[in-house]
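Hi there, hope your week has been kind to you so far. No rush at all, and the record is pasted right below.
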Amino acid sequence: MKNRAFTLIELLVVIAIIAILAAILFPVFAQAKLAAKKTVAISNTKQLGLAIMMYEGDYDDTYPTGFGSTTWTGLDLWCQKVQPYVKNINVFSSPTDNQGGAIPVIGSWAGVGVSFAANSYYGNWCCAPNWTNGFELRGPMGIANNGWWLWGSELNSTTVSQPSGSILVTEKHGDDIHQQDTSNNPNDTGNFSNFAMGGVIGGDHTDGIGWGPQKAPDGTRSTALAYPEGPNGAVSAKYANLAVFVFCDGHAAAKNPVSTDPDPVNKPDLNMWDSKR
């Protein structure tokens, strides 16, 4: 019996079928991989949320300060304060943050980069009368009171009116910060402290030496604007425009950042960054 070889047409048909199957399956594999990373990020944020709640229990129901210094050295950060309550330091890094675990931080606690930011929402601090009357902290963890334009550095958990609907921590990736335009601040292209990488969200700053972008989401902003000026603000949304959040009651979830503050002016009751609403 003679062995019959494949014809060219048969080979091309087989190759075409394999190519079609690959085109169908590869996106499915990519989505599955991303879903697995999202699960890890949710687990990490939940552990950070539990660590913050344990800290809070040891300090008269008071949340840790987001950061207590605006200098490059001697930083006093929320992640430093809750680190003793965390067994695995890698929970401070998100699996989708290319810079989160790579860049050493600056300050008294050197370690992995922080991919998550504390909610330090100070309300509408871009406009009067706040410029003349100071800013009232509306998020759980704020900036240390400097006696001039910031009021209070942290809140007591009893002031949070809707724990299940108030954000505690969310994602803010170092690789996003590195990708933004730093032409006006060449210092931001070098090493970042976790004050700049993770740090806080809730101010109106786009950038600044040692500050990093802080804009909270705002659904009324144009989608054409690049990070961090767009609707997502400084929140990193790497899961089909979803980001991971942990709330003041300890539960964690993936949400579209815009859904956390769709319209701060006309729908303030839906602003999950305002824990006093």
